[in-house]
Design goal:
Length: about 450
């Protein structure tokens, strides 16, 4: 029975696994009031979320609360996104907060999060879809309000950093009911013209309602489908929009977008000057190295004593010529001896001599063959005569010449016994020189066998 008891740790771990595997507890949208708020020195936030009847212990770790746009306080109503888990040491469940916003903008925040999650699942934010910006663009399209401070900051910064680039302001509405269509149409029109290397899409700061046009799905789709790289420059550094996630690059401010879009001419000049200095240094080093190499060659033995060197080389040449002549003579003698040897062997194998030998061998072969044929004919003739003599002895005709005969019945059967005929039967007797027609007059048996 004791084996059925669990430890507190085992039970807690089991409950924690149940919480961890429940998909409904992984993505919780919750609203409530903050109480017992404590901001730990290590950056984590510990608080209680409650309503009129219930409360739940919550924690928001430093990695998540670092991007909060407000400071949580006791009594503040908030909208929360998080997950439910179990804190094992105390065996209690609690809410792990991932995102938190004041309840005053709850509907917009919820719409933002839902669209963000939808586009993320569709791959709109994947790095594989991000296009690289050209290092030295020739033409930049600026899609923003023509009257705002953002456009002045962008144009001024670009002209200051890279004055040779062409900038074109494409005016659009950046807030209000018609802003979404205005922004989308401007991006599509810029792509159809094909005159731009980079597009900067954005506006200055404002409330979430003011920036909401850049959180619309239509604008996100247009940016995603753009064949021209898009830099999103919406609001201040703390303002995050859907366009920032979809764009090929996000700038913290409109001025930052201008700095990202073009290189700095001062930096380029410094880099060119640095390259010039490096090339000059390398050329000087190569010239110095070549001079040193030339001086070493001038000090070498060949240039100091050219006559001695030529004399020495002449002697070496004589030795090589003598060695070559000796080698040539030796090789010539070896080839000559080989040729004589081959000629001797060829004479021995001359066709006329081989033909004479073949004729003699043929005559000898014919003579031997004739002799053997005569012997074979003689042997075969003797054997044939002997066989004829033996056959003659066995020939019935020869036996009948000595007075013997063979009796036949009228049907042609040989009569070999008295039982083969009866009295008065007609028989035929075959003799050596003819036949006799006879009749059996009487039959007598030989009792002696």
């Amino acid at each position: 029975m004791k084996d059925n008891y669990l430890t507190v740790t085992a039970l807690t771990k089991y409950i924690k696994r149940k919480f961890d595997t429940d998909s409904h507890l992984k993505d919780i949208w919750l609203k409530g009031e903050i109480s017992n708020f404590k901001h730990h020195s290590r950056g984590h936030m510990y608080l209680t979320i409650k309503d009129d009847n219930t409360r739940i212990q919550s924690v928001m770790f430093a990695g998540n609360n670092r991007i909060l746009k407000f400071t949580p306080e006791n009594g503040m109503n908030v909208l929360i996104k998080g997950e439910i888990g179990v804190f094992e040491p105390y065996g209690q469940y609690q809410l792990y907060i991932k995102q938190m916003e004041p309840d005053g903008i709850g509907s917009l925040y919820l719409a933002f999060e839902q669209l963000k999650e939808k586009l993320h699942k569709q791959g709109f934010f994947d790095k594989s879809h991000k296009k690289e910006l050209p290092k030295f663009p020739q033409s930049i399209g600026i899609i923003t309000s023509p009257t705002g401070a953002a456009v002045r900051d962008i144009v001024t910064t670009i002209k200051r950093r890279y004055p040779i680039v062409k900038t074109t302001v494409i005016p659009v509405l950046v807030q209000g009911p018609n802003a979404v269509h205005s922004i989308s149409n401007a991006i599509n029109s810029a792509n159809q013209q094909g005159d731009y290397d980079v597009l900067i899409v954005g506006r200055g700061g404002g409330s979430i309602e003011d920036l909401w046009s850049f959180n619309e799905e239509k604008v996100a789709n247009t940016i995603f489908q753009s064949s021209i790289p898009v830099i999103s420059a919406v609001g201040h550094e703390t303002d995050i929009t859907i366009s920032d996630y979809v764009a090929d690059l996000r700038a913290p401010t409109p001025t930052g977008a201008a700095e990202i879009a073009v290189p700095s001419q001062l930096e380029l000049i410094d880099r060119i000057n640095g390259i010039k200095r490096s090339l000059t240094r390398m050329m000087n080093e190569n010239v110095l190295s070549s001079k040193q190499h030339l001086n070493r060659m001038k000090q070498s033995y060949a240039f100091r004593y050219p006559e001695h060197l030529i004399t020495q080389k002449e002697q070496e040449l004589d030795k090589h010529v003598e060695r070559l002549e000796k080698t040539f003579n030796s090789e010539w003698k070896r080839k000559k001896d080989a040729l004589i040897n081959i000629n001797t062997r060829f004479e021995a194998q001359h066709p006329d001599r081989q033909l004479d030998r073949a004729r003699k061998e043929l005559k000898l072969f014919i003579k031997q063959t004739s002799y053997l044929m005569d012997k074979i004919v003689e042997q075969k003739t003797n054997r044939l005569n002997s066989a004829i003599d033996k056959l003659s002895l066995l020939n019935p005709l020869e036996t009948m010449k000595r007075g013997y005969s063979i009796p036949y019945t009228q049907t042609g059967n040989i009569i070999s016994s008295t039982n083969d005929v009866i009295k008065n039967d007609q028989i035929v007797v075959r003799l050596a020189d003819g036949t006799l027609e006879c009749r059996v007059m009487d039959i007598k048996e030989d009792n002696n066998g």
